[in-house]
Prior knowledge:
This protein has helices at residues 14-33, 88-95; strands at residues 41-42, 45-53, 60-66, 68-70, 73-75, 98-103, 110-113. By secondary structure, it is α+β, with helices and mostly antiparallel strands. The chain has one domain (14-132): Roll (Pnp Oxidase, Chain A). The strands form two sheets. Strands 1, 2, 3, 6 and 7 form a five-stranded antiparallel sheet that branches. The longest helix is centred in the first third of the chain and has 20 residues, at 14-33. The relative contact order is 0.15.
Amino acid sequence: MTTPNQPAGRRPSKLAAALQNAVTWVHRVLYRSSNGVIGGRMANSPVLLLTTTGRRSAKQRTVPLLYLMDGPNVVLVASNGGAVRHPTWWLNLQTTSEAWIQPLQWFNDSLYRVLVPINYQEHPALPSTAEFL
């Protein structure tokens, strides 16, 4: 149960965070080495690699993410699996809105400008959460 001063959501342990980082690294390596054959789909959903520039380190950070297509637009959901904090890639995009994406269909490491922040009320054409359940 949460109190008014405590945000809702889970707080991952250090072990869980280290495990998530290791799984992300393995996923990224397999995805790139197999051109998306391994790791290109998860639970029958397409996966892309998103590379952002670290807001403090200025290093390139790459994470695998599920995505949706909305016409020519790529839609990413920054949910962080229900955690209290926003995902790091989202915070990086708020600092610099340039990112490289490598979806399964296109293996050309193109630079895309990402629109941030985006919320559902600003884009009613996007499907609602209920449509995915």
